[in-house]
Amino acid sequence: MLALRGVSKRFAAVQALVDVELEIRAGEVVALMGDNAAGKSTLVKVISGVGPADKGVIEWQGSAVQIRRPQDAQVLGIATVYQDLAMCGNLDVVGNLFLGREIHRFGVLDEVEMERRTRQLLHTLSIRVPDVRVPLAALSSGQRQVVAITRSFVGEPRLLLLDEPTTALGIEQTSQLLDLIEELRDRGLGVLLISHNMGDIKAVADRVAVLRLGRNNGVFDVNTTSQEQIISSITGAADNTTTPRPSRPEEAWP
After folding, report:
1. Which single residue of 57, 96, 103, 189 has CA 20 to 30 Å from 154?
2. pTM
3. Cα–Cα distances in Å, from 58 out to 3, 49, 209, 222?
């Protein structure tokens, strides 16, 4: 679905990404891991069009594309849920879902249609909130997180980028969110999950891509790789920067 080839990004004197490669397939959850300042958030911004790459190739379904702004990513079907959620606490669920893409009828907001679509979308994703007309600030952190994910589906995305989605959640809320991620994978979506939580990664991810100091440091199959191997790659105890990229999708990474 998505492939990055030799992507690099610099901020003044800081080289944030160096020749990064990444592949995400439909119906797959890829976890992106790395220590602080490894380049994870920068890579998400490159894919989402917030901070375009300086060089490299981005392929969408096998064809090279240009993602220079967020609208370019949205047109392709790429949606992003950032760590800060970027929602308005004074607006209700309906208002947040359609913020910036409100539906109008005869020149005025069509509140009835937006509420209908909100309820339909929540039902489709098996998401429950107390009331779609309650201010977002009145919801729990877990409920706000799933509302943010629901908002990304207003545009019917095919690839979902999640930046540390469980950081502020409790155990029960985390479990519900991980169930939602699994359901999205089963629906055929591609998911890129940025997380520091190894438990979350083991629970839902198919593969783990590790960044260290802005470079690839290994891609691992979650089911066949030990936690120690992944942590060694994150900390730099294991240097996998020379790991070759598979020449065919069916070839497994070591």
Report:
1. 57
2. 0.84
3. 6, 11, 17, 25
Render pLDDT for 28-46 as a digit per residue (tens, 0 to 9): 999 999 998 899 999 999 9
Number of domains in the chain: 1
| pLDDT 10s digits, 59-73 | 999 999 999 999 999
What would the two tokens of residue 42 be? Answer: 């920068």
- Domain annotation covers residue 165: yes
Asked if the structure places residue 69 within a domain, the reply is: yes
Which residues on neighbouring strands pair with residue 3, listed in sequence order? Answer: 23, 59
- Is 19 within the bounds of a domain? yes
Residues in the chain: 254
Cα distance between the two ends of the chain: 21
